[in-house]
Specification:
4-stranded antiparallel beta sheet, 20 helices, elongated
């Protein structure tokens, strides 16, 4: 269960990072001003700003409560100047401000009695004699600013006894609340008073299109969502302390760099049950840079010729090493969840639980399935999830559907087959753009691999495979070869065979096959006349090799055949350019050797 796993994660952090985790009832609170007092409660000067060089007030772990409407609920040592000092905001009703300030004073007095702390008693004494109108304040002091106290250099809300007081205080307030529900907590199993509303909101700024004021996981604001007379968050009974824990855990995951990943309108969070979280987020977001860290560190040039080959080896073996810090037999549970926003609510789109060992195996297969040569025939770098998802769209920022990156991430982490529907979108994009990009070719290959049936073999398709059995694959190769022949014969033309025929040849090949072959005959004849017999034989030999695999030209192609057509087209293009680059490198090497030889002869002559 997602919330139980988050609660366990929060408890784990409390055990491992005591002092760095939020105490019950505490939240990150921006406090703008600190009022200095001595041990007797005497004012020691004007309120001191917490703003640093960037003019931003400091954030503290401080007491917090949820307030709504005209509800009067003071926040101990971390409230605005209305509550803390009784200073009116513009347009505020004096009688309301007086009630808020009195509630704050009563809360401090109760804390002083229960804890017996001299620091809290000093604040209580100050508030007894404090007169808002006579207090000297800085020019930039505002009533809506949060204010606290510092007593002889100590912040009262940081004292352990104050933290315990606030924890127990919240329990008592919850029990005494009108309409409080006692029920069995879904997460702990104990019968206790459960929350009526979630005490901590999820940070809406961390979830794409989320509500900035915060969001809820459990809530009901319409009768259709209510049952058995339970309203708001009571529809899923959970005790307040556990609700704080899962919300704080999720907010932490959404903040830390290595535990969340944002793609389009979806954000993903990752955590483990009882050990460090593997750095999955950077690997899935930017595999190229993450793999560079794995290979030799940041000193490796990103476009180094040795990088792709090293990366290929890592993709099938190194997920255990530095990145995961252990062996493949690690059985600790790994969790992931994908989240999006719907108004003020968090939508859980998917949740994943598996062992780290299983995670590593799935990631190995995921990245191995991405292996595909680039346009020059070199091993291409792996893609991040966003690049793969965006390949399905003309304008991914406007058109991307939330379920697409969710499906790709599920495939990466738990090996779920990619949706077959992706192929329809991919081949449609190929037709519209009249080309096949490496991200689309990669995703096409991944869909075929993840959905392969018995007897189907899509392995080894990282580069050209001349003996594949599918006619569609070789007709894709044929179109790429005809384009190369046309370019050799005519040079650059405004509308080549790809521009004119990619769409029709990839869907209804028989309808244009004759025209394409007639054009090829004319182009080969022109090459023979103008470029010589050698150029003609090379082009014709390649063409005949492709045609030897084509026994019949179908009238139409289904989606899978169109996908194989696109891979054949891509592979043939890459193989063609790889040949050109190899010849260029060989030529450069010969010229360098000749240059070195001429230099040696010149040196000998001078001697």
């Amino acid at each position: 269960m997602l919330l139980k796993a988050l609660v366990d994660y929060a408890k784990q952090r409390e055990r491992e990072q005591e002092g760095d985790t939020l105490p019950t009832g505490y939240q990150p609170v921006t406090i703008h001003w600190l009022i200095p007092l001595d041990g007797s409660g005497n004012l020691q000067g004007m309120p001191e700003s917490t703003s640093g060089e960037n003019d931003r007030a400091k954030i503290f772990q401080a007491p917090s409560v949820m307030r709504s409407g005209q509800t009067i609920r003071p926040k101990l040592f971390a409230d605005n100047a209305e509550y803390t000092l009784g200073i009116e905001r513009e347009g505020a009703k004096p009688e309301q401000v007086a009630k808020r300030h009195q509630a704050y004073k009563d809360l401090v007095e109760t804390c002083a009695k229960d804890t017996g702390l001299s620091q809290v008693q000093a604040v209580a004494k100050f508030l007894e004699t404090h007169e808002p109108s006579k207090m000297d304040l800085p020019d930039d002091f505002k009533p809506e600013d949060n204010v606290s106290f510092v007593v002889d250099g100590e912040l009262p809300f940081e004292l352990p006894k104050v933290k315990s007081f606030w924890k127990e205080r919240n329990k008592e307030v919850q029990k005494a609340k009108k309409g409080a529900l006692e029920a069995e907590c879904l997460l702990s199993g104990e019968r206790t008073v459960v929350m009526d509303r979630e005490p901590v909101k999820i940070k809406g700024t961390r979830i794409p299109n989320g509500q900035p004021s915060g969001m809820n996981i459990i809530s009901a604001n319409e009768s259709a969502y209510e049952s058995y007379g339970l309203k708001a968050s009571q529809i899923a009974p959970i005790k307040r302390e556990y609700a704080e824990k899962y919300a704080n855990a999720l907010n932490t995951l959404l903040t830390e760099k290595d535990t969340h990943l944002r793609i389009g309108d979806v954000v993903y969070v990752f955590w483990t049950k009882d050990e460090d979280v593997p750095s999955v987020a950077p690997l899935l977001n930017d595999p190229g840079n993450a793999l560079l860290d794995l290979i030799e560190g940041r000193d490796v040039p990103h476009k180094s010729s040795t990088y792709p080959e090293q990366a290929r080896k890592l993709l099938s073996s190194a997920w255990v090493g530095r990145y995961f810090g252990g062996a493949k037999d690690r059985q600790s549970d790994f969790f992931a969840a994908s989240l999006s926003a719907s108004g003020s609510r968090v939508v859980v789109r998917d949740q994943i639980q598996l062992t780290i060992a299983e995670l590593i195996r799935h990631l190995e297969r995921y990245f191995a399935s991405q292996t595909l040569v680039d346009w020059e025939g070199n091993p291409g770098e792996p893609f991040g999830i966003y690049a793969l998802a965006a390949s399905l769209y003309r304008d991914a920022t406007k058109e991307m559907v939330k379920s697409v990156p969710v499906a790709i991430l599920a495939h990466a982490l738990k090996g779920t087959p990619l949706p077959w529907a992706f192929l329809s979108q991919l081949v449609a994009r190929n037709r519209a753009s009249q080309t096949v990009t490496r991200p689309r070719a990669t995703l096409t290959k991944m869909v075929l691999l993840s959905n392969a049936r018995s007897g189907e073999d899509y392995t080894g398709m990282e580069k050209l495979v001349r003996d594949r059995p599918e006619t569609a694959y070789h007709l894709g190769r044929l179109l790429a070869a005809l384009d190369a022949i046309q370019s050799n014969a005519l040079g650059n033309v405004k509308a080549g065979v790809i521009d004119r025929f990619y769409g029709s040849f990839s869907t209804a090949p028989a309808s244009v096959f004759g025209r394409l072959m007639q054009g090829a005959t004319n182009h080969l004849s022109k090459i023979r006349k103008e470029k010589g017999e050698g150029a003609f034989r090379n082009a014709d030999k390649r063409l005949q090799e492709i045609l030897s695999h084509v026994s019949d030209v179908p009238a139409t192609f289904d989606v899978k055949s169109q996908a194989l057509f696109s891979l054949g087209f891509y592979h043939e293009k890459a193989d063609f350019w790889e040949g050109i680059m190899e010849r260029k490198r060989a030529k450069d090497a010969r010229e360098q050797t000749e240059s070195d030889s001429d230099g040696e002869l010149a040196t000998q002559g001078e001697q």
